[in-house]
Design goal:
This protein has 18 helices and 15 strands. By secondary structure, the chain is α/β, with parallel strands linked by helices.
Length: about 450
């Protein structure tokens, strides 16, 4: 069965007909997990997709439906699924043991590669996730500066710990979210991206800012883009104020380029948080940065300086299997044009999808930068030209809109039933393994989705 065999059915009915195995597993999952989920972004109505295997740029669900994959392991898989060199390294590491409870040679090589590739990385401390990386980065900044406040930008995601919850998808006034004490929220200052007057005013009004953190391409990997000129302003303001500038390159690190956004822009932050590609698709993260800041984790240096060392533990920090996958991945990225290939595919697929929108006279847009893509469904019905869309002017229209609901959920549904999987943005990350076949499937699936949504009355 395929979408073409049910031409008159709704997209939801086609999805349900194609995915009975996912429906059954979702029903079981709801009996043992809240909403049947392990990650909020996998939420999807009427139920999420259950995948059983993947290879390169594609994956198959439990009903053996095949999808071009732009979920990409939540952005972790720049080399696609099951890359042979990465898998060989993982299997070799597994043969030696999954956890030694000790230092090991691979963690040294892993850290060496990071310091060679990332401009800001004078020192590296591994964590188990990107959330942990942003948490320890903030603690380091506060200890180093002796200050309390953190500046963040509305819509930017930096993990789920208490300092990072307001202003991402709700509580844009900075008030505490459920389960977070107000005292924590009071020390987080929110600003709008690209607002030079606003960020300048914050620095004029607050002399106790320990750190500024942001996604350097803009929220959600450039869905709400940051202007390069704004990065320059931030670098100068933080330098003048003695504030620590943190680039959250959990998504963009080793993706935008082998050295991340900072290598492309030439703007070097004081610290950088990393995860996803860092570990080659396995769990892992890191905070990297200036030696004098990360010295607060150093036993000997802290003692000599007479300052309290920051404690940092973690059972799976620099896990040897994650380290093996990370080394194999980073060596490929450092020695090949993999990042450039993914970026080039992104440029082409966005252009082709915008051609579909213009042919179908739909005033939406497919936008993004590097190896990312985002579908803007234009809820305000602005008079836009898809191929000329400037997302920076529409950030306020995007920032508080729920994802995966209404027409955006229908877009993802349409793509799924036509063999393409994106996240609920709807957005996607591209791997170096995506090629001409995947491009053609994607463009055809997008055209079929737009036409189906016209038939269903979701596009007028």
């Amino acid at each position: 069965m395929s979408a073409s065999t049910l031409p008159n059915a709704t997209l939801t009915a086609i999805y349900e007909a194609l995915t009975p195995g996912s429906a059954a597993l979702a029903a079981k999952a709801r009996e043992v997990m809240p909403s049947g989920l392990a990650h909020d972004s996998r939420h999807f109505d009427p139920y999420p997709l259950y995948v059983q295997r993947a290879l390169g740029p594609v994956k198959w669900d439990v009903d053996n439906n095949k999808y071009v994959d732009y979920f990409g392991g939540h952005g972790a898989l720049i080399l696609g699924h099951n890359h042979p060199a990465v898998m060989a390294a993982v299997h070799a590491a597994l043969e030696r043991g999954t956890h030694f409870g000790a230092c090991h040679e691979l963690e040294v090589r892993w850290a060496e590669l990071v310091t060679q590739m990332v401009p800001s990385a004078e020192r590296v401390r591994f964590t188990s996730s990107g959330t942990e990386a942003t948490l320890i980065a903030l603690r380091l900044a506060r200890a180093y500066t002796g200050r309390s406040k953190l500046v963040r930008f509305r819509g930017h995601f930096h993990g789920w710990h208490d300092h990072m919850t307001s202003g991402y998808t709700n509580h844009f006034d900075g008030s505490a979210t459920s389960g977070v004490i107000q005292g924590v929220a009071d020390n987080v200052l929110l600003c709008d991206a690209n607002d030079v007057a606003g960020i300048t005013r914050i620095f004029n009004d607050h002399k106790d800012i320990a750190a500024v953190i942001l996604e350097p391409t803009g929220a959600n990997f450039g869905k709400m883009p940051i202007l390069p000129s704004f990065l320059t302003v931030l670098r100068e303001l933080t330098r003048q104020a003695g504030t620590v500038l943190i680039f959250d390159e959990v998504v963009t690190g080793f993706r935008v380029s082998p050295g991340g956004v900072q290598a492309v822009t030439g703007i070097t932050p004081d610290m950088t948080t990393l995860a996803k590609i860092l570990s080659g698709g396995l769990p892992g993260g890191a905070v990297v940065g200036r030696k004098d800041i990360l010295d607060r984790l150093d036993f000997k240096v802290s003692k000599a300086a007479g300052v309290e060392k920051i404690a940092h533990l973690g059972t799976f920090n620099a896990n040897p299997v994650s380290a093996a996958a990370g080394i194999a991945t980073l060596e490929i990225l450092a020695g090949t044009d993999a990042c450039a290939r993914a970026n080039a595919y992104g440029t082409e697929v966005r252009a082709k999808m915008n051609e579909v929108l213009e042919e179908e006279a739909v005033k939406w847009a497919v936008h993004g930068s590097y190896s990312g893509m985002h579908i803007y469904t234009n809820p305000e019905a602005a008079d836009i030209v898809p191929s000329g869309f400037d997302a920076a002017g529409f950030i306020q229209k995007m920032i508080d809109k729920p994802r995966g609901e209404g027409v955006t959920g229908q877009v993802r549904m349409g793509l799924l039933v036509n063999g393409v999987d994106m996240n609920s943005g709807p957005s996607g990350t591209i791997s170096a393994m995506h090629g001409e076949e995947e491009m053609a499937i994607t463009v055809d699936a997008f055209r079929a989705t737009v036409r189906a949504l016209k038939r269903e009355g979701a596009i007028r």
